[in-house]
């Protein structure tokens, strides 16, 4: 690729990322239904037309953010599965990573985007299809093998593993929402969360 073309591509990529970052903030604060392209353009400090130059619609932008959030969640769970240690140690390591990420605004907003995608009727059809397709692995499904293995080794309490996984992510989502509403919200350490699941 010639140098100028390479530079142009870098500029296009940077501009798209700028728009996505702005959209993340606006969607997190206003929700999918209430957000307009003009709101995203204003947050990004760009013209309305320039946003449309890079994206066809707010639906396309929202879909890209949902995919980014979903991939980020699954990636951290897969890293935890590959991490050294017992199932409980893997779960604790994953919890530490997630809680540390909540200190970072972008990760917190991505959690909120996923909550919106899972609960709002206003989300684009593309997002609904992405979240319900057969090969889409939810964080709950991806975490189940660790929980079941921990139960088999006597580390994790004997309860329905799906219920435990749902409870785990409900805690995480609740903390993410609190962090957005109250930026100084204290985040518990992983040990506090692990006590709920650890067999005495």
Automatic annotation (TrEMBL):
<keyword id="KW-0238">DNA-binding</keyword>
<protein>
    <submittedName>
        <fullName>TetR/AcrR family transcriptional regulator</fullName>
    </submittedName>
</protein>
<dbReference type="InterPro" id="IPR036271">
    <property type="entry name" value="Tet_transcr_reg_TetR-rel_C_sf"/>
</dbReference>
<keyword id="KW-0678">Repressor</keyword>
<dbReference type="InterPro" id="IPR050624">
    <property type="entry name" value="HTH-type_Tx_Regulator"/>
</dbReference>
<dbReference type="InterPro" id="IPR009057">
    <property type="entry name" value="Homeodomain-like_sf"/>
</dbReference>
<feature type="domain" description="HTH tetR-type">
    <location>
        <begin position="13"/>
        <end position="73"/>
    </location>
</feature>
<feature type="DNA-binding region" description="H-T-H motif">
    <location>
        <begin position="36"/>
        <end position="55"/>
    </location>
</feature>
<dbReference type="Pfam" id="PF00440">
    <property type="entry name" value="TetR_N"/>
</dbReference>
<dbReference type="InterPro" id="IPR001647">
    <property type="entry name" value="HTH_TetR"/>
</dbReference>
